[in-house]
């Protein structure tokens, strides 16, 4: 119920209509997001670059939503609209939108690349610990997981190509290569993928696992993972 202010009997009746929306409200605080803007400036058509390259709208329907809505005015209007009215996680959105939003979160939190990779690792550990992923990973092994990585990747990304090479038996390592148009995947985003791949490796039973970037160029990123 609306709060009672115990007005005296002589007080005039309020002319303000009664409030009917008691949901959470946030005051948006615009903040500069320098790395996000630098990323958009590096693309040939800014935010509207590479529209056929898409990703599932996961970031707009996760635990990041509260943080994003609090700073929604810091983002370009098209991204702000997705923050205010998020699509279901199964819907496709521009890969550029997703990447810009991820970098924006790193800017909001003041994370450098090392910290961003660690945050990605923890976020993805949480995802992998969910009941659905626990069931999927229970029957997986690192080799089986990465053997189907191209199919798994295509369930979440359209356009960006993933290739995977697995070591021979006894050589427990994997090399993953992403290919994409110029500057679509900046290095900080590649570091985030490192954390995601590391979390998947752990969930599949890889002991003492680790991932690192071997190469990052404007059109390609190569990662190597090892485990025992």
Ends apart, CA distance between termini: 59 Å
Low-confidence segments, ≥5 residues, pLDDT <50? 1-27
Structural class of the secondary structure composition?
alpha+beta
Q: Would you tell me the overall average pLDDT?
A: 85
Q: Give the beta-strand count.
A: 7
* Name of the CATH architecture of the largest domain: 2-Layer Sandwich
**What is the CATH class of the largest domain?**
Alpha Beta
Supply the number of structural domains. Answer: 2
Strand content: 15-25%
What sort of overall outline do the alpha carbons produce when their principal axes are compared? globular
- For the report, how would you describe the main beta sheet? 4 strands, antiparallel
Taking all Cα atoms into account, the compactness measure Rg is 22 Å
Task: For the largest sheet, list the strands in their spatial order.
Answer: 4-5-7-6
N-to-C order of helices and strands: HEHHEHHHHHEEEHEE
Count of alpha and pi helical runs: 9
CATH topology of the largest domain: Muramoyl-pentapeptide Carboxypeptidase, domain 2
The CATH homologous superfamily of the largest domain is called Trafficking protein particle complex subunit 3
Query: What share of residues is helical?
Result: 25-40%
């Amino acid at each position: 119920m609306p709060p009672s202010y115990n007005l005296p009997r002589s007080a005039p009746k309020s002319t303000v209509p009664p409030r009917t929306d008691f949901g959470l409200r946030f005051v948006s605080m615009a903040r500069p997001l320098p790395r996000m803007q630098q990323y958009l400036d590096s693309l040939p058509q800014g935010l509207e670059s590479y529209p056929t390259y898409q990703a599932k709208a996961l970031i707009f329907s996760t635990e990041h939503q509260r943080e994003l809505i609090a700073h929604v005015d810091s983002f370009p209007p098209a991204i702000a609209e997705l923050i205010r009215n998020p699509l279901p996680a199964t819907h496709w959105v521009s890969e550029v939108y997703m990447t810009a939003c991820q970098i924006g979160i790193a800017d909001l939190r003041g994370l450098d690349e090392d910290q961003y990779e660690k945050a990605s690792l923890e976020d993805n550990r949480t995802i992998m610990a969910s009941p659905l992923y626990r069931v999927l990973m229970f029957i997986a092994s690192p080799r089986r997981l990465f053997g189907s990585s191209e199919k798994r990747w295509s369930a979440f990304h359209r356009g960006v190509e993933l290739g995977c090479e697995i070591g021979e038996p006894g050589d427990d390592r994997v090399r993953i290569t992403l290919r994409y148009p110029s500057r679509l995947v900046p290095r900080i985003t590649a570091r985030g993928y490192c954390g995601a791949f590391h979390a998947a490796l752990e969930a599949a039973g890889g002991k003492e696992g680790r991932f690192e970037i071997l190469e990052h160029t404007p059109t390609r990123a190569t990662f190597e993972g090892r485990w025992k």
